[in-house]
Design a protein that fits this description.
It is built from nine helices and eight strands. Helix 6 runs parallel beside helix 7.
Amino acid sequence: DTLLSGINFGLRKGKVAAIVGPSGSGKTTIINLILGLFEPSDGQIFVDSNPLNNISRDSWLKRIGFVSQDPFIFNSTIEENIRFNRPSGSSDDVVKAATIANAHDFICDLPNGYDTVVGDRGMKLSGGQQQRLCIARAVLESPDILIFDEATSSLDSVSERQVQDAIDRVSIGRTVIIIAHRLSTIRNADNIIVLDDGIIVEQGTHQELMDNQGHYSRQVAATT
């Protein structure tokens, strides 16, 4: 079966693109293609003017920071969790990453600060705190591209605002892709790509799509 058909869009350096659509519309497939986990059966993906399949997977993945819906936290200290993908990062780098990710203040309030052991699967932290640690981990790698895959979908409204603020802060100067379930989180995106059944049905800014009165505006109306 063809999962996507006629997909054609660009991601501009330093801009935020959001991909929205119902479950099964092809959002995850697009991310897997961008990550190079598999190749398209037709067409090509270009990075600048270079075909993605001409770039080594390791060097490409080093340019990408990925934050998923389910934060991966292991039973160690805050600092070791942030350093997970870049053990050589200095303590100053860890603090800078945590600050950008809106995590430094809550870390300093913990009993042992950055040396606090968070428990199995981060049980001593709230969902929003865990997610901000994962954002700090991604930022520590200094990626060119950041991908947020439903990063706020399982959080309560207070935690969602804190994580959204972190996303806004880390997005400055980077190419960002947000897979969104809650449309409230992507209103400020530079381009919103709306998928339905494997095709792009519309794309534009929030205001442009609201003015179109199409798929996107109907989704917004259904969730407000």
